[in-house]
Amino acid sequence: MALALALILIVVGTLAFHLWSPWWLTPLASNWQAMDDALMLTLGITAAIFVIINLFVAYAVIKFRHRDGVRASAEHGSKKLEWWLIGVTTVGIVVMLAPGLDVYAKLITAPADAMQFEVMGQQWQWHYRLPGKDGRMGQTDVSHISPENPFGVSAKDPNGQDDVLVDTQEIHIPLNRPVKVLLRSQDVLHDFYVPQFRTRMNMVPGMVTSFWFTPTRTGRFEVMCAQLCGIGHANMRGYVVVEEEAAYAAWLAAQPTFAARMRAGAAGGAGVAAAAAGAGSQAA
Ligand SMILES: [Cu+2]
Known about the structure:
There is one protein chain. The protein is α+β, with helices and mostly antiparallel strands. It folds into 2 domains: 2-64 and 81-107, no CATH class; 115-269, Sandwich (Immunoglobulin-like). The protein contains 6 helices and 10 strands; from the N terminus they run αααββββββββββααα. The strands form 2 sheets. It has a 5-stranded mixed sheet, with no helix packed on it. It has a 5-stranded mixed sheet with strand order 4-10-9-6-7, with helices on one face. α1 packs antiparallel against α2 (33-63), α2 runs antiparallel to α3 (79-107) and α5 (258-267) runs antiparallel to α6 (271-283). The termini are far apart. The site of copper (II) ion has 7 residues, from loops. Residues 112-254 form the Cytochrome oxidase subunit II copper A binding domain.
């Protein structure tokens, strides 16, 4: 009897905790309402199964408890019941998995007019690259990777000269424009995750993975690494700032280009001044 009561209390407590929990989803800041819908569908189905199974066990514990003079009778399975269970389980699993597959397929199929930026994960920081005025990112090769050139942009590719390399842990993007995010890693598995966008993807050394989203409200959203990537994992935080087009353009213009960065590196101690001059001549 105590066990049955405990099971019922667990069911009631769990439901109450979820309904009145302060830890619900952060408010959505992108087009991916479909992510939330798929999540809620899964949560709804698993909640229903959780409640039904626990209440059934509690019922069975009470109904078939020991009573003096009553003997248990053996039953050797029921084909009909088993087919029902197989059928219901199959439908439940299909309903949980199918929306996720559908949303994932959409997540990795960026619209043709999406702008792009690239993120490089490194123990334990982020690097960002955007295409320059030509709208194209230069070719890369891991053999070119260095502290000044975290993406390994090829110095010989003219498309790469005006690539924008963001020095800080913060990237800006314009509001309401679809953006495709290209993801790479220099060392181990990282995962670029912004909860409010409902987007995340592993960053795998030797691969370029990608997803896209459209930011739907302005704000400063925290980036977290969602793969335990070593001792400094918890420090691997950054920000995505979503802002109006004009503010974004002003921010973009102030970022150094790959060519300016390389000249600054070559100039050594006078690097900062050269970079400033280089950025000026690029803009002209
Ligand atoms: Cu990481």
